[in-house]
Amino acid sequence: MGGSGRAATCVQPERPGGLILAPRPGASADVTGDCATDAADLAVLLQDWGMQDSPADLDYDGVVGPADLAWMLADWGG
Ligand SMILES: [Ca+2]
Question: Which residues surround ligand 1, an ion (CB under 5 A)?
Answer without folding.
Answer: 57, 59, 61, 68
